[in-house]
Design goal:
ABC transporter transmembrane region fold, 12 strands, single chain, 6-stranded mixed beta sheet
């Protein structure tokens, strides 16, 4: 079995960026429109320094009358206002379009992650805390979404604007621009160092966010146990430690960015000082007009502004890359169990099951099942009994392919289950487990699992068959009664009856009961026992139970010990052998009770 652990593999920025861009391919045309609008906005953004410098030159001109100066200034001002208005409209439409592209991309990425998790095996999912998987699907995809909506285009825009301003500076004064360029290597060096340290800090942040979410998920679910054993103080202390680690990682992230931004600002101020010093000399010598110098000064400010914005965008970009690494780790985890390329779709099966020398282990060299072989005929009821850890539940999990066996064969109607698609296999198998899970919604939703093909009559019939109607009919809303989280507004027995109805409503060819009556009171057990006897007549049934009273009428009972089948036979046959089953039976009943031999 391949391990699925939350250890993030470090990836190059090139690899991460390539994969992130691939999600935008379906929106290539819309993105090209955004880029086109960006060029329009850039052109308009370049106008203010030119216009203001032009106005300053008009005011300082000795060749124009005051009336001519006023007319020209009015015309330039109106043009300036119109340009700003047009620019704002372009930016607004570009932002709306970009947000739509970004949000839709995130939706598709989030759906892909959730769908991939659904296809992982139970064993793989159990290796990672639920809170961490929730973080992958929600927090990390949202962080990636910020890159699509706020960074992607702005990063391109700032880079292009940087080159556009640099060209304008060269056109105005090549001499001054050469001095400005001297500062660029220092900015580049600071950016390289920032990138190195920021990526590591963002990885720590994302890892600690996952730890906090995992801790919350586990402890909120287990709050009842925490309170029963008065462990609030201990859990509070543990949470403080997790929270402190997250705080420290955030502080490290802020420290890295807090050093980088002032360094870039300092370099930009050095560039401005150089411009003012050299530019003043150029104006005094008559090489430049005062308005032209002012235009140059404004462009220099514009030159360093996108550099500082790039620092903030690098901040978001590195955060997104760190999140993307974790998301891609999930997506790159190959499911342990996959369908054979030539897997068949079962439309139905009779319920014949056969294990042929099956060996299975959860961890290497620790065999849970050792050479298990048995056969179940269609319509038979077969029970598995034995001590905890003997492999009973494992056998049931292997039939529905929650795990893959290492040796042997499992056949259904003579077909190896590896040659059957998992969806069609599980479609014909009804499972009733000891640990019942109910979803938020109504009782009807939990029975049908929102399958529109199941009618209200089907739901009622299944509920009556298993006896769930005895309490559902007494509820104010009946089958529309709201089920709270994990079904905590119902008793264990009621939740189990709902799960029975859920399994039965799909008309399975094989029924699996794994300790399904373990948490049920005697009255409910009697009700379920009647239902079980009726269900024995409609499908093959496999039962794991510690209560031997529920399996006495089984066609066959398999007694397991240490992963092997030690005894096999009917209830009476096994009692006559006076072996393991006989001892189990004796433990559950009063010693004074006479056992019919």
């Amino acid at each position: 079995m391949k391990d699925f652990k939350d250890n993030t593999r470090e990836r190059s920025d090139k690899e991460v960026l390539r994969r992130l861009i691939s999600y935008m391919k379906p929106y290539k045309k819309q993105f090209m429109l955004v880029v086109l609008l960006m060029f329009v906005a850039l052109g308009i953004q370049m106008l203010p320094p030119l216009i203001i410098g032009f106005i300053v030159n008009i005011i300082g001109s000795n060749t124009l009358t005051k009336e001519e100066q006023s007319i020209r200034i009015i015309i330039v001002t109106i043009s300036f206002i119109l340009a700003l208005g047009l620019g704002n409209l372009v930016v607004y439409y570009q932002s709306i379009l970009l947000q739509k592209i970004g949000q839709q991309t995130v939706v598709e990425l989030r759906n892909e992650v959730f769908n991939h998790i659904e296809h992982l095996s139970i064993g793989q999912i159990n290796q990672v805390p639920v809170g961490k998987l929730v973080t992958r699907v929600t927090n990390d995809t949202n962080t990636i979404g910020e890159m699509y909506t706020n960074v992607a285009v702005n990063l391109i825009r700032n880079v292009l604007f940087l080159f556009a301003v640099l060209i304008a500076l060269f056109i105005i004064s090549p001499k001054i621009t050469l001095y400005v360029i001297i500062t660029i290597p220092f900015v580049f060096a600071a950016t390289v160092l920032f990138r190195k340290f920021s990526r590591a800090s963002y990885r720590r942040v994302r890892a600690n966010v996952s730890e906090v979410n995992a801790f919350l998920s586990e402890n909120l679910s287990g709050m009842k146990v925490t309170q029963i054993f008065n462990q609030e103080d201990k859990k509070r202390s543990e949470f403080k430690n997790h929270s402190r680690k997250l705080r420290n990682s955030y502080l490290q992230e802020i420290l890295v960015f807090g050093i980088y931004r002032p360094v870039v600002y300092l370099i930009s101020m050095v560039g401005v000082v150089l411009v003012l010093y050299i530019g003043y000399q150029e104006v005094v010598s008559g090489v430049l007009l005062a308005g032209t110098l002012f235009t140059y000064y404004m462009y220099v400010g514009d030159f360093f502004e996108p550099i500082q914005q790039l620092a903030e965008q690098f901040n978001t970009l590195q955060n997104a890359f760190a999140s993307a690494e974790k998301v891609f780790d999930v997506l790159d985890t190959k499911p342990d169990i996959t369908d054979d390329p030539e897997a068949i779709e079962l439309t139905s099966f009779s319920g014949q099951i056969e294990f042929k020398d099956v060996w299975f282990q959860y961890v290497p060299d620790v065999w849970v099942l050792k050479g298990i072989s048995f056969k179940v005929n269609p319509g038979d009821t077969v029970a598995f009994v034995g001590a905890t850890g003997s492999g009973k539940t494992t056998i049931l999990s292997l039939i529905v392919r929650n795990y893959e066996i290492q040796k042997g064969q499992i056949l259904i109607d003579g077909i190896d289950i590896k040659k059957i698609s998992r969806s069609s296999l599980r479609r014909h198998i009804g499972q009733m487990l000891q640990d019942v899970f109910l979803f938020s919604g109504t009782i009807k939703d939990n029975i049908t699992l929102n399958d529109d093909e199941i009618t209200q009559d089907d739901v009622i019939h299944a509920s009556e068959y298993v006896g769930a109607n005895t309490f559902i009919d007494k509820l104010p809303d009946g089958y529309e009664h709201v089920v709270r989280e994990r079904g905590n507004n119902f008793s264990s027995g009621q939740r189990q009856l709902i799960s029975f109805a859920r399994a039965l409503v799909y008309k399975p060819s094989l029924m699996i009961l794994d300790e399904a009556t373990a948490n049920i009171d005697s009255e409910t057990e009697e009700l379920i026992q009647e239902s079980l006897e009726k269900m024995m007549n409609i499908s093959t049934m496999l039962i794991v139970a510690h209560r031997l009273s529920t399996i006495q009428h089984s066609d066959k009972i398999l007694v397991m010990q240490s992963g092997e089948i030690k005894e096999e036979g009917s209830h009476q046959e096994l009692l006559k052998q006076k072996g393991l089953y006989y001892n189990l039976y004796q433990l559950q009943y009063d010693e004074k009770e006479k056992v019919n031999e």
